[in-house]
Amino acid sequence: MQSEGSFNSGRKSLPERNKDWVEHDVDLNKFQQLTPEYLKLNPNGVVPTLVHDGQPLIESSALLEYLEEIIPEPSLVPADSIGRAKMRAWMRYIDEVPTVAVRVPTFANIIAPMRFAKTTDTDFSKHADRLPLRKQFYQRMTQKGFGKEEVEYALSQIRQTSERIEKALNEDGGPWIMGKQFTLVETQVTPLIDRMEDLGYGSVWDGLPKMTDWFYRVKRRPSYAATYYPGARISEKYPTHYRTANEWRAVRGY
Length: 254
Fold this sequence. Notes:
By secondary structure, the chain is mainly alpha-helical. It is 57% helix and 3% strand. The chain has a domain of 177 residues: Glutathione S-transferase Yfyf (Class Pi), Chain A, domain 2 (Up-down Bundle), CATH 1.20.1050. Strand 1 and strand 2 form a beta hairpin.
């Protein structure tokens, strides 16, 4: 399993199922995800990738459902059709909104300064061109990172996600997003919320007490400690390049 920070959903799902796995770290700072060896496993040149029985599998939400099929106990999927449909609607939303949003402060605050601060326009353009996916993402970012408007919009999307979690907890009674059952929704969205907290954006869910309590409950599960062992977070992987959100606000104003 290859993974980076906010894409730890598969790693969180496996401990929930009490299964062991072998982790192979991909150093994105060295662009190991673009090596010929890795591209044979994942032609998209992104993480994560799961190799099971010699078969490489990609895309976080697809991996979560695959793990549910091959390791059905304990189940992280509702037993009824309506519940499963609602779960998949959540998963589609997570793929399309907070997953995309989290990339912006991640790249603006640590990836771009770490990888591209001294990169020329020509070299940066060449790097973007070699990416199987996300060329436009890099072109929007530039080697200086993202601007105020992009970062603030991303934060608003995370706030929207947090408010939807709060609403679900209120309406379905908790303790989990879909009610009494801990589901794939938790395993998919938790790494995104954790990344935002790690970057120093925990204030995004200020004033949402049920969402705050939900995150506290998630942190108390054994799978959380197994996923976020010492050194696993991006702040710990790249400490010399890490700055908190408040430190970035002091430097650039947002």
